[in-house]
Amino acid sequence: MGVFLIAVAAWLARVEDWRSYTPLAGGGTVGGTAEQYVSEEKPSGVIRWLTTVDHKDIGMLYGAYALIAFAVGGLMVVLMRIELADPSMTLISNTFYNSLLTSHGITMLFLFGTPIIAAFSNYFIPLLIGADDMAFPRINAIAFWLLPPAALLIWAGFFPIPDVIPAQTAWTMYTPLSAGVGSGNQVNAGVDLMLLGLHLSGVSATMGAINFIATIFTERDEKVSWANLDIFSWTILTQSGLILFAFPLLGSAIAMLLLDRNFGTMFFSVDGGAILWQHLFWFFGHPEVYILVLPPMGIVSLVLPRFAGRRLFGFKFVVYSTLAIGVLSFGVWAHHMFATGIDPRLRASFMAVSLAIAIPSAVKTFNWITTMWNGKIRLTTPMLFCIGFVSNFIIGGVTGVFLASIPVDLVLHDTYYVVGHFHYIVMGAIAFAGFAGLYYWFPIYTGRMYQVTLGKWHFWLSMVGTNLTFFAMILLGYGGMPRRYATYLPQFATLHQVATVGALILLVGQIIFVWNFAQSWLEGREVEDGDPWDLADDDLTTAEWTWFERKLETAVTDGGEDETELATDGGQAVDDADADADSADDA
Q: How far is 184 from 95, CA to CA, in rounded Å?
């Protein structure tokens, strides 16, 4: 990997005329040279996407990458659920089941969850705050291009590489198993490659976080103050702060684990090493949950009021609750360790903070519900996913409060109850908010409108599938079914089969989504109205729709040709402005 990075740096040094580079903000020359800025059009085709530093293009790359990872992780879990339809092993081996379990968790959290948020934030944060681009466009591009090799490393064990098998450590990588102690298959290089991939994804997230903080602090339009900064930008700013404190710790822990595995150090292979790993991992791991859920909360807080016909109720309290979650999230990590035998006084303090962090989440929930109260509700597809988000988040949150109680947690720890609770948040809430954003902003990044009926089918199949699958898991947990098992006792068969049916319903819903998304992008009805959702009727138009309207107007005055504008990196950016026809209202 080091050789690869050096080769990339050497190539960049060869092809880039660094002395003539002039940022747009400089307005002149660098180093006293007399060379003037010369505008050139973006390259087209593959070269454009490989070399772009435009925030909108990079947002699209993040989105494509995240959806591919979502498909891979989803197919992994479908195979697992089919296997679990029968109590005994019938389809795949136990070791391959463990490999799918490990890769599914890491894929969904690190290769889908964080990048899909980066897709929205890269595309829309500069538009929402009136910036020309991100503060550091090239760092923004580098942060994305670290992710494809990270995915290849994480999935390397599934490729036909001699003597390399997939990691089977589960996504938490608990030691001493992941340290390769003993004669098991965890000494295999597949675990090392997975750890390196995780490290790369963490570096990418950290670079992006620095960029978002710098952008929101320094690139805002003069009219955008802290008082009127939009709620999505607030959540991205808070998320970026969490990333800066959490991901470097994960990187350090992974480096220590790699040293244990390859150079015989003894960080985690001695007495207390397993507890040390859990402390280091969960100090990252629980803030990671809020790193993933805060921006989706911001999407819902932005989108839901648009179809409730009124502004977000208690805007300041939603902002304060976001900041409170960011602070409290670093004080709850040991609630994952109640069963490890740590000091009861420490357990009590972590229980108190774990219960307290539910309060700002409840504040948000009541604000969303109050925003809809007596509003002019329009059940568009984005609104349906927002309502589904709130519903699933309530179930996931309430089940989490039970786990924050030490006596209850000791009973339910490492059962399917934990799996059901967690997936109500990551699938029922985070993914639903992502779908809400994809449908809501679909006209902006495609210039077209999706098929309304298929969008609603996608919602209802996802809603039914989610609740069938994960509520069955909660009931399995109450029955005492341990998680991570490929086989189980016959009395759990019925609930496992219900969960498998729910997973297949979810699969059908996502197939409809993929078809609708791709077909509408290529052949959907073009929009000519800069306000396809009729937000102006309730004075709820936001900055990105104003930008979209200007883009359409420019395309009309240019006779439908592409609009050309300067990019902040001193190069030339060309926005694709579609020729516009009929608009479709998702009502």
A: 11
